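Hi team,

As requested, here is the filled-out complex form for the magnesium ion run. I kept the field names the same as last time so the parser does not choke. Let me know if anything looks off before we queue the next batch.

— J.
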Amino acid sequence: MLSVEEARGQILGRVRVLEVERVDLMAALGRVLADPVVSTREIPPWPNSSMDGYAIRAADAEPGATLRIVGRVEAGAVPARALQAGEAMRIFTGAPLPAGADAVVPQEDVDTSDSQVALRGAVEPAAFVRPAGEDVRVGDTVLPAGVRLGPAEIGLLATLGHAQVSVRRRPRVAVLSTGNELADLGVEPGPGQIPNTNTYSLMAQVLEAGGEPLSLGVARDRLEDITARLDRAAGADVLVSSAGVSVGDLDLVREALTRVGAELHLWKVSMRPGKPITFGSLRDRAVFGLPGNPVSAMVTFELFVRPALLAMMGCRHLDRPRIRARALEPMRNPGERRGYLRVVLSADGDGFGARLTGEQGSAILRSMVAADGLAVLDPGAVVMAGDAVEVVVLKALNG
Ligand code: AMP
Ligand code: MG
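And here is what came back:
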């Protein structure tokens, strides 16, 4: 049996990075930048005021000094002339500093008459001045290739004049559920049937990872049905099936994959939930056969499919953040396999505490709803309350 790291290594070693496409800036949110962005602009382009007040020469600012107001500069305008000794210019936030000035006195710190401004004390040079280039300099690499674009990156790209951005194509991911017992959404489950969960949780995971999901529906546990549906995934970059991947008589996914021409690279991974998971190649497509239990399907997607999709998008960070939390109750992982236990995280002093979501059965989907993360336990590990435990963080924390 492979370790999680070995399996992951094999998978990441075989996925290919997708092509680059140009998209409009707002369509680039959540996408992965294909090339580094180097600034051709200075931001801000010139020294400007961070307050409404008066541009002055700091050297003129002795207590009791009175300066002559020689003009006015608003944001969007340029100063009519340079400032001489003994002069001040009315200035507003964001307006360019006149040449000769080196500081701004906020309007609430002066006494003014029609033509004069009286200072109340000394003024430091550069006070309330935002220097040219304090944010970005020409030639700065402001974003490296492989970053996922969020609102701040989008704003920065706009600042630098990028109406379009080069990003990696989103992987198209076909999702197949298999099982005679499954009734798809919209169909009332008949006797002996259960609702199809995995198609939807997995497609949602694909979307959240940045891929484009496509459903291949539910295949019955018959080779012809599975292969016929797999054949429909022609346009996909990745194929993800769930269930039918173990050793039962009706576990036909591996055989079906082989029949349609896939080469299977791995099968069992030493982990719980999970274990039976298939990864293979079907021409230039990556195929994953995930286990059927809803929690196992989601956790194996997290550990193997998600990093593969991110790698295909050229992402530099493939992993969720991991933290060390304090166990708030005992946790055990009997047996020979690495355990991924669903935990709730809560702010706890200067860190986080972790408690189990409750029963850890791999069919208990509500444990995934409750879980903020997965505590990673070595085979046989016994963690006592108060011990540190490593947690893969799945959700935003409100600590
Ligand atoms: P299998 O690997 O086919 O033996 O499936 C393992 C368990 O997962 C069984 O209890 C199945 O009924 C369940 N299961 C398989 N596929 C799904 C699905 N798409 N949605 C919900 N449960 C499923
Ligand atoms: Mg089955």
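Two things worth flagging: Helices lie at 4-12, 151-159, 198-209, 223-231, 253-259, 294-312, 366-370. The first helix runs from residue 4 to 12.

Thanks,
J.
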